[in-house]
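Troubleshooting log. The previous structure file for this entry was overwritten by mistake, so regenerating from the original sequence record. Sequence copied from the archived sheet and checked twice against the printout by T.R.
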Amino acid sequence: MATQHEWLRELVHDVADFPKPGVGFKDITPLLGNSDALRFSVEAMADPFIGTEIDAVVGVDARGFILGAPVAYRLGCGFVPVRKGGKLPRDVLGCEYELEYGTERLEIKTGGVTAGQRVVVVDDVLATGGTAAAACDLVQQCGAEISGLVFLLELASLGGRNRLLDPPSDLASGHGTLVEALLTYA
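Regenerated output below.
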């Protein structure tokens, strides 16, 4: 998928030492502000799942919300937010995970996804894979099945893909979990 979308790279800006010294941040706000790029990105992120039975899209706090909600709309299913700890009211399931620059907690509302549902997890960046793995853990705690994960971009050198559920595959094979990114950075 990544090689087809190189024109989007000019709309992703590098920010050094953010949010902490030594961390290179990928600023996607110029891409989000460009209507053609946003539309293209959402459609390309949804396309691998068109024609499959998807019950919900789980978007990861916070930029995964921006992309996940329109992906859910495109797939004709519901959207379920996975939030940082303490942001959801009432009963939640949670898990702790490590980032490249610290630790965090993610939570999902109890009943947000249910046993047997087929779910796509959407986020902006696949880096070390900690956030995506935590989101998948929450979905699985609910008894739902991960049909795939899709990201706007992947930082391949950080090895996040290796932390995810099954080896990457395609949905047509009937095994593994589809893991896609529109843009891949070394």
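The helical segments are 29-32, 35-46, 63-75, 130-141. Archived copy saved in two places this time.
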